Amino acid sequence: MSRLFGTDGVRGVANKDLTPDLAYKLGYAAAHVLTDRHVGRPRVLVGEDTRVSRGMLASALVAGLCSAGADAIECGIVPTPAVAWLVRHFAADAGVVISASHNSFEFNGIKLFGGDGYKLADETEDLIEAHVRKYREKDGNRPYGEDVGRKIEAFEAADLYRGHLEEVSGLDLSGVRLGLDCANGASYKIAPRLFRDLNAEVHSIGVEPDGYNINHDCGSMHLDQLIALVKEKNLDLGFAFDGDADRVLAVDSAGSVCDGDIIMTILALALLKEGKLRENTLVTTVMSNFGLEQMAEKNKIVLERTQVGDRYVMERMQEGDFNLGGEQS
Fold it and tell me: What SS3 class is residue 103?
């Protein structure tokens, strides 16, 4: 029997591989595994991207959470990194993102976060999967009456996260002419508003989601439109996000692509110059290229490599107390 969880949660074609029944069981199992029942009623935060199947799967997942006695805090359409922050902001026990990242609209996925805002270890995912596989509909231990969980709407969550980003950035982008491709996904509102609030001149594409056009010939996997926009408008640079905005690539003023390795190089050298690169270390995956190694060697930066997957990068950063890491794509 194949493992339910992949490198980034549970994913498949919505209503075929990832069914409402499976979403319900995942919600029910997650409520049992990820929440501390000794500290009041557990709370699980739920966010999603713009896919047409988001309502179907969110409804099923929330039903599973509530059926297990957990309150479900529904945040609506928010980027995946927002959920990582919002879990801590709301002091929730866990978080869930309904998204299939850079994949096309017919796919969807369920990603889980712990109460600390970090993705789950393999062992925790295995425990949730075990609960899913042994699920019984007629479970005599289900809560009832006042112990049934509630659905709580928190649609102000996106604005809370945007305000957080504005505060921590401390930037004034006056005079910067910026292009954005939001992939018709989770960043379609928050990203243009954020950069405008930071005083940049913003030109946006991929900001008209209809449930079907997420990642379609746009976003970080399809940079042609952003390159054309930057050249046509003579912009200073451009950023392209994927469907759930946990991935970004950049385009410079000449239309040249800056992938994750280039972006990490810029950030690492800036932090090194300011004396803020902890342990002079950059964490990346085995997919990063030789050019990054050469840069690191030239600047006496330690390059730590992990297997592919942002959660493995984060795990290594936590282990070593490092403050910079990422992936090439």
Answer: coil
CATH 3.40.190.10: does it fit domain 10-157? Answer: no
| Active-site choice (53, 67, 99, 101) | 101
> Does 101 participate in catalysis according to the annotation?
yes
> What's the CATH number for 171-258?
3.40.120.10
Question: Which residues lie closer than 8 Å to 45 by C-beta, 6 or more apart?
Answer: 73, 75, 83, 86, 87, 90, 92, 94, 95, 96, 154, 157
Decide if 10-157 and 171-258 have a common fold: yes
pLDDT in tens, the chain (329 residues): 578 888 788 999 999 999 999 999 999 999 989 876 556 789 999 999 999 999 999 999 999 999 999 999 999 999 999 999 999 999 999 999 999 999 999 999 999 999 999 988 889 999 999 999 998 766 667 889 999 999 999 999 999 999 999 999 999 999 999 999 999 999 999 999 999 999 999 999 999 999 999 999 999 999 999 999 999 999 999 999 999 999 999 999 999 999 999 999 999 999 999 999 999 999 999 999 889 999 999 999 999 999 988 888 999 999 999 999 999 87
Domain boundaries, the chain: 10-157, 171-258, 271-320
CA dist 261 and 245 (Å) reads 18
For the entire predicted model, the pTM comes to 0.92
